[in-house]
Amino acid sequence: VQPTTNTVEEPLDLIRLSLDERIYVKMRNDRELRGRLHAYDQHLNMILGDVEETVTTVEIDEETYEELYKSTKRNIPMLFVRGDGVVLVAPPLRVG
Amino acid sequence: MSRTIAENSMVVLLQGLQGQVTTVDLKNESTARGRVVNVDAFMNIRLDNVLYRDRRGQLTQLQDLFITGRNVRYVHIPDNVDIMKTIQSQLARIHRVRNFASHGGGRKEFATKTK
Known about the structure:
The complex is a heterodimer.
Chain A: H1 11-16, E1 22-27, E2 31-40, E3 46-60, E4 67-81, E5 86-90
Chain B: H1 11-15, E1 21-26, E2 31-39, E3 45-53, E4 59-67, E5 72-76, H2 83-99
């Protein structure tokens, strides 16, 4: 919500380059978001459209002590994300 | 009474949701769905006519709920909201109040300066 320049001067400017693009957001508490970045601010509060949230949990098998990773996904059309939960912002991860 | 204003922050969008029914996901894994009464600069949110779902899924109806900003994880934006228009109208509202006393010299009966 601020006037913008065209040059990349600080880390937040790199996020500006991703406006209107799909991005990957790693959040605290083993959550990840993939969605289209509509807006953001200096706190990393963000508005994401067409979001997929992935919550990952680890269950330990009591007998074998195996780690079982489970992930739960859900889709949300438009989401406001509070910045203090954001760990990193990146272009969507590509496989291969 | 004084009021902290956030004009450089996305909180202004949440403030523009006044009157709308939304769902707020809290950091403690619970959710609150209700009508937005007010949002302040710290993202503290006041909801009324709330359906509160705790982390176990148990539902409670609440007439009034105050959520501290620090406890907010997500706010679901209703489909019918135009993000840019809402932000612009909120910023216009802030600037209108700010310019109220300065442009035009304020109250005319106390004008001592001549241009």
